[in-house]
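Illustration 12: EamA family transporter.
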Amino acid sequence: MLFVQLGLALSTGLFEQLGPLGTGWIRLVFAAALVLVIVRPRRAWFTRSSFLACVVLGAATSGMTLLFTLAIDRIPLGTAAALEFLGPLAVAVLRSRGRALLWPLIAAVGVVLLTEPWTGNIDPIGVLYALAAAACWAVYILCTQRVGDELSGVRGLAVSIPVAAVIASVIAAPSTIPLLTWEAALAGLGLAVLLPTVPFMLEIQALRRITAAAYGTLTSLEPAVALVIGLLLLHQVPGLLPVVGLALVIVAGIGVERSAGRTPTAPASATPASALIPAPTPPTEAAAAASGAGEAPLERGELRTGEPA
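Figure caption equivalent — predicted structure in token form:
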């Protein structure tokens, strides 16, 4: 999440030259090129359903990237991050099946304190952009789970990121290409490494090593990281009420994650088993009972997998 918020904060430096949409576009284009070089996708990896899931994931990634970039052009980074976090929070509430109804109310109070609508100082268009990015993030989570169930490792990124770049190109390339300079292109390449390339790949590795609850709790802290990054790099000093509101959103995120859950499904791969990590020899029943075998594995994309970590 540090890479995500750092990349977003540094992206604002290109807004004056390329605009928010152009900055989001150049990040996705370079990220797509990097992912294709690193992953080297093969047609045999994908089934029809997994490929379509990757395409939808790419559309969600593009919307999330462009809309959030538009949002931070109008409202503070910490506020935008807290509003965008309502997307995964909503998904977690739906998973809780009625066990987490208190947390959305706490989050709603937090949003009101964050935006302080009674002052008239918040840009309503920026708020709408952030909420639209939240909706894209919710779709992103659901699609990531589907892709993670069918594909191993970072193979899904080899389709989703290029699809996101193509969609962003249709929207922003015609107006941005005439504004490009070598300096802006190099800056865009560096930003693409910070976000989304490195965060997405690190996130997949993290999900293999920590529990879903731990991952969800850490992700819930992202608005706080955004607030600190905005303060240090962008000199965005929040008032007391917005800080309290952001804290309430974080508490709601942690609370609903503890209440929610997802029944794991066994991942299916389009590639032969020999192409993946060899499976160990199944233990005996006595050994399995002693070691606690049968514990449900962590699923990829439990809460989030761009703008990104």
